[in-house]
Specification:
CATH topology of chain A: Farnesyl Diphosphate Synthase
Strand content of chain A: under 5%
CATH superfamily of chain A: Farnesyl Diphosphate Synthase
CATH class of chain A: Mainly Alpha
CATH architecture of chain A: Orthogonal Bundle
Radius of gyration of chain A: 18 Å
Low-confidence stretches of chain A: 1-8
Strand order of the largest sheet of chain A: 1-2
Order of helices and strands of chain A: HHHHEEHHHHHHHHHHHH
Structural class of chain A: mainly alpha
Oligomer: homodimer
Distance between the termini of chain A: 28 Å
Largest interface: A-B, 54 and 53 residues
Number of strands of chain A: 2
Chain lengths: 305, 305
């Protein structure tokens, strides 16, 4: 269906399942069970890497690569790098000095199992591993070193002080003082949005996307990231803790700035739907369509409601 | 003096001063005072980046580049990346969950000033910034993207789970239980040695060094790194806290495995001197000499005794 992203042509759940399993295989190759010296730090890293993550960021990277006509398999090291960064951020966010969470996806958090020092180091190890994967020789020869360096730059910018790290600091500092709509959006744009946007763009860049295509992917990613965060905030209010594998009501207890707190549940749901529509609209720049990305955007917002 | 590294031809102190100041300028350009959004995370990063570090790793990188005939100025982003990694490791090592240090180079440590969560995030920001700098476009066009990717890989390996992060975990776990000579050497090889070795090699790789030259630099770096750590252990026993800007006797109080604890002070001093000689011997592979590296190795061991 030229000129139409072709919503629904791809079964997002099946697509997620297929690529999540390819990402798991690649992660198992990069961080093998029982491999690595010294062993304990690799055990710590694997504990959180294989704790039931949905691999959303890696799958978005693969789908971004596919959308521009690239070979999605060649982007797998970058997809794994995204998951390493995401996982480290969860380990550090859960620390007693941060959100002080005991459970994550139904399992004890890293510092509950290994202790605080080891959890900090496990996170540092994953963050560093991400950039070791970005320098993967096979990916560099498949995609070319210039594209790989560009993707590496995108990842560092999204994960770093102006992106995820800065957003987490703003979030901590904002406790109870929302700073209005603009403040809330800035926190989420940096803390979650930047990495989701980078995931899609890295795939597009590695796949050889033209500047116009990359601009579409950037807009898609920004909107999808925002929608993801709104839904996350909603699920923290009304999600089923059993299904989600983590405590709900945490944001309210921590006095966190959230969409439902600022706008109410109904308006937040409406915002999530509208934002997903905008993400899908951004794909109209792909004449051949980008059905996987379109379905994934729907999937994000439909996760539980 | 062909065939001779030409010890003493370069004044190491002056060389350090010159290049440390170039590195400071570059760091000020990459992380400008009052620049960056959100501002607080950049303030946290700058606080530790400009806390009086001697810039040893960046200077070794520059000297490694020079030794193979490369343009040392072109390696400055990589040199700064090394300092970012070193600085983040100090911030995280000082945390209450790790070594619980209040002072570093005579100044309150990051978590004492900004709080624990912010210090963790400041460290994460610096670690991520290191790889943003490794993807610097100017460096990539000067040295070529393949060399830059290779240097990035060296950095990630040295800083990561098998290198510095793994060494720090071993160090924490070893508390009071040396594990003999082999255990002590493994801790130091990973924790300090790997980054010092990588510093020299990254410079050599970016400067276009031949495989044989890189092998010499690897051996030089491994020996220089070991000497550095032995001297560090010695200074913790007999150094002047005023001069060093940090508490001494910390290792003993923490029951840490050290060279003086295992071998005594005299034998440790002798080991340091011998190891520096071995580092300098490794430079005999440079027919034109590598006087800066030779002098720097002497400088490391002569720091205070």
């Amino acid at each position: 269906m030229a000129g139409n992203p072709g919503v629904g042509e791809v079964d997002a759940a099946a697509y997620m399942k297929h690529w999540a399993s390819r990402v798991d295989d690649a992660l198992n190759r990069f961080v093998p069970d029982g491999g690595g010296e010294p062993p304990e730090v690799f055990r710590i890293m694997r504990y959180s890497l294989f704790a039931g993550g949905k691999r959303l960021r890696p799958v978005l990277c693969v789908a971004g690569c596919e959308a521009v006509g690239g070979d999605p398999g060649a982007a797998l090291p970058a997809a794994c790098a995204l998951e390493c960064i995401h996982t480290y951020s969860l380990i550090h966010d859960d620390l007693p000095a941060m959100d002080d969470d005991d459970l994550r996806r139904g399992k004890p958090t890293s510092h509950m199992v290994f202790g605080e020092a080891a959890a900090i180091l496990g996170g540092d190890g994953l963050l560093t591993l991400a950039f070791e994967l970005m320098a993967d020789e096979e990916m560099a020869s498949a995609a070319g070193p210039d594209r790989v360096l560009g993707a590496s730059r995108l990842l560092a910018e999204a994960a770093g002080a102006s992106g995820m790290v800065g957003g987490q600091l703003l979030d901590i500092r904002a406790g109870g003082e929302p700073g209005g709509t603009a403040g809330l959006e800035e926190i989420h744009r940096r803390k979650t949005g930047a990495m989701i946007r980078a995931s899609v763009m890295m795939g597009g860049l590695l796949g050889g996307g033209a500047p116009k295509q990359l601009a579409c992917l950037a807009l898609y990613g920004a909107k999808a990231g925002l929608a993801f965060q709104i839904v996350d905030d909603i699920l923290d209010v009304e999600g089923d803790p059993e299904l989600m594998g983590k405590s709900t009501g945490v944001d309210a207890a921590l006095d966190k700035v959230t969409y439902p707190a600022l706008y109410g549940l109904d308006a937040s749901r409406e915002m999530a739907r509208r934002t997903v529509d905008e993400a899908i609209d951004a794909l109209s720049g792909f004449p051949e369509g980008a059905p996987a990305l379109a379905s994934l955007a729907q999937f994000i917002v439909l996760r539980r409601f």
